[in-house]
């Protein structure tokens, strides 16, 4: 994780804030070993969301990630673009449709384009807990809720098995 964070600058992304690292169970349960999750705020200048995602994918590839179409399988690294301000991509109806996708379909179907904000960030403690450390006031543009409110709505069961690893990440 630290290596990935260190490579963001070479891709034109300025690291502004990083959460603690969180040890979390694999998602979905039983799909692999525990993960280490973190959230970062980056400055992307005039880069489009698609260009930012491409930069994240280059960092993943440099670190050995092979994208073979498998959904939610064990992987060396997984960098997600969760949001860019209040942008909704590609449009509100598509964002809502992906957010409402039933759990059984989520493992089978992958979007063919960038969906922003990430369609399930509001459902995942392993996303919200680190994000709440660095951007608790960010408001989901479709749900109208802050990160802090979405995290609180998950309740303790949404953080089951998760634990922060010490202090803030150093890069």
UniProtKB/TrEMBL annotation:
<dbReference type="InterPro" id="IPR000550">
    <property type="entry name" value="Hppk"/>
</dbReference>
<keyword id="KW-0289">Folate biosynthesis</keyword>
<feature type="domain" description="7,8-dihydro-6-hydroxymethylpterin-pyrophosphokinase">
    <location>
        <begin position="71"/>
        <end position="82"/>
    </location>
</feature>
<dbReference type="GO" id="GO:0016301">
    <property type="term" value="F:kinase activity"/>
</dbReference>
<dbReference type="GO" id="GO:0005524">
    <property type="term" value="F:ATP binding"/>
</dbReference>
<dbReference type="GO" id="GO:0003848">
    <property type="term" value="F:2-amino-4-hydroxy-6-hydroxymethyldihydropteridine diphosphokinase activity"/>
</dbReference>
<keyword id="KW-0067">ATP-binding</keyword>
<protein>
    <recommendedName>
        <fullName>2-amino-4-hydroxy-6-hydroxymethyldihydropteridine pyrophosphokinase</fullName>
        <ecNumber>2.7.6.3</ecNumber>
    </recommendedName>
</protein>
<dbReference type="Pfam" id="PF01288">
    <property type="entry name" value="HPPK"/>
</dbReference>
<dbReference type="GO" id="GO:0046656">
    <property type="term" value="P:folic acid biosynthetic process"/>
</dbReference>
<comment type="function">
    <text>Catalyzes the transfer of pyrophosphate from adenosine triphosphate (ATP) to 6-hydroxymethyl-7,8-dihydropterin, an enzymatic step in folate biosynthesis pathway.</text>
</comment>
<keyword id="KW-0418">Kinase</keyword>
<comment type="pathway">
    <text>Cofactor biosynthesis; tetrahydrofolate biosynthesis; 2-amino-4-hydroxy-6-hydroxymethyl-7,8-dihydropteridine diphosphate from 7,8-dihydroneopterin triphosphate: step 4/4.</text>
</comment>
<comment type="similarity">
    <text>Belongs to the HPPK family.</text>
</comment>
<dbReference type="GO" id="GO:0046654">
    <property type="term" value="P:tetrahydrofolate biosynthetic process"/>
</dbReference>
<keyword id="KW-0547">Nucleotide-binding</keyword>
<keyword id="KW-0808">Transferase</keyword>
<dbReference type="InterPro" id="IPR035907">
    <property type="entry name" value="Hppk_sf"/>
</dbReference>
């Amino acid at each position: 994780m630290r290596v990935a964070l260190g490579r963001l600058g070479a891709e034109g992304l300025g690291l502004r804030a990083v959460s603690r690292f969180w040890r979390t169970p694999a998602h979905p349960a039983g799909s692999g070993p525990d993960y280490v999750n973190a959230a970062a705020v980056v400055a992307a200048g005039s880069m489009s969301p698609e260009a930012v995602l491409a930069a994240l994918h280059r960092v993943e590839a440099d670190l050995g990630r092979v994208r073979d179409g498998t959904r939610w399988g064990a992987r060396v690294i997984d960098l997600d673009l969760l949001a860019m301000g209040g942008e909704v991509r590609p449009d509100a109806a598509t964002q809502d449709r992906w957010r409402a996708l039933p759990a059984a379909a989520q493992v089978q179907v992958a979007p063919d384009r960038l969906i922003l904000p990430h369609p399930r960030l509001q459902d995942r403690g392993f996303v919200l807990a680190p994000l709440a450390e660095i951007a608790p006031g960010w408001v989901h543009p479709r749900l109208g809720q802050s990160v802090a409110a979405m995290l609180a709505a998950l309740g303790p069961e949404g953080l089951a098995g998760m634990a922060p690893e010490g202090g803030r990440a150093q890069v």
